[in-house]
């Protein structure tokens, strides 16, 4: 076997090939490029040079797993080209070139003089063209689309508030009935004034902490409990699943009692104001008229702030972590891409996929995009650096550990949450503007009379810390003397509120347990950041 043939084999032979036979090795051979190779299997291919004698240059490779090459243009006499060999299937020896005029004399000579066959040793079968992908395990292992998971089975042990009164939404539309799922920890004191509301992020359920009816660890397991940051020996803690969600509260996956079918995209648009009003309907049902604190992060921080603005006489203090006064364009853009990933999945079916299909790929991609915005480059540099999954030569599938991490996040989330709920609640976050309906953002914030703790992380790229600075500053400008601001050096980005127990937890505990000498004052003077800083 000539060095030229070996070079061709290195380009052509893929792992798991059968026998490879070389009928002649004297002529120049075809250079394949990955873009020329399709994904269909063929029995054999023949390679020749258009300007040379076929008897001298014919080389046939019998392959069992090679893609089929489609020739879409004529080849010049100086080209290297390939002809599909049908001889094995038809019993004929094919020697005529695909383009150009065939020379019958050399062809006849080639047919009458069979050439010796050469078995390629096993080690030659491992001469791989590594750029050639005939299989993509990262794609083929994905489960089929639909039907959608039953989300209520993922979260259990919650209670449900049910109102049969029509619920009017801010941007139009009426729900004929309302369901709000919730869970509680601790005991109410005698005057029912020790209530702490936990407002969830976009995709969280009401299960913030394990309890007797659901012993699965909650999303804030270490923050809530006896002696914890939110001390259940002192406070009665209640956590809602937000309106529009899929863990027991009314949302797109809920059944519309008027049609006996899931709402899908017939569900009205949701706003943070709608979420607040629905949760306070539950509080009224529980005969809770005074809230010690409204606590939340991300979307929950928006909800906490809005609760303080809409119910200033009922909310004693607010804690807003990794949130803002109004959603900024950069954040809207990031969430827009997530929504587009879902809505362009054909299985989304304009939001009416329940029981029929499920936009699994769109949901997976949406979460992968979201994960990039929830964490930080600093964390990933420390955690993954440029580590690779294996020592195997790279391919188009995940090669770096960071790629595998992102893929895993997308896969596990895609079956845990309703895509329509992600669309509706991410849009609700984009709508958020505490100054909407007021001449200025400052005047909208002036409704917030209670002490407010604002916290942000320097590494947050979804809601940069400049947005928390703006919120703290504007609250003070509006006349609120109870503003406390913390800026953390955490590397965990937007998810700092889930991971940094020491700093986040200590700040929450201090804010909740500070005795107020008078309403609206937590501590004298400006927070450190606000002293001498530009607004």
TrEMBL record:
Biased composition (Polar residues): 74-97
Entries under InterPro entries matching the protein: AB_hydrolase_1 (IPR000073), AB_hydrolase_fold (IPR029058), HAT_MetX-like (IPR008220)
Alphabetical GO biological process terms: cysteine biosynthetic process from serine; homoserine metabolic process; methionine biosynthetic process
Entry's family note: Belongs to the AB hydrolase superfamily. MetX family.
Gene3D superfamilies, alphabetized: alpha/beta hydrolase (3.40.50.1820)
Pfam families hit by this protein: Abhydrolase_1
Protein name: Probable serine-O-acetyltransferase
Region (Disordered): 74-117
NCBIfam families: homoserO_Ac_trn (TIGR01392), PRK00175.1 (NF001209)
Low complexity bias spans: 102-112
CC annotations in GO: mitochondrion
Residue ranges annotated for the AB hydrolase-1 domain, each copy included: 194-498
Organism name: Acanthaster planci
Gene Ontology molecular function terms on file: homoserine O-acetyltransferase activity; serine O-acetyltransferase activity
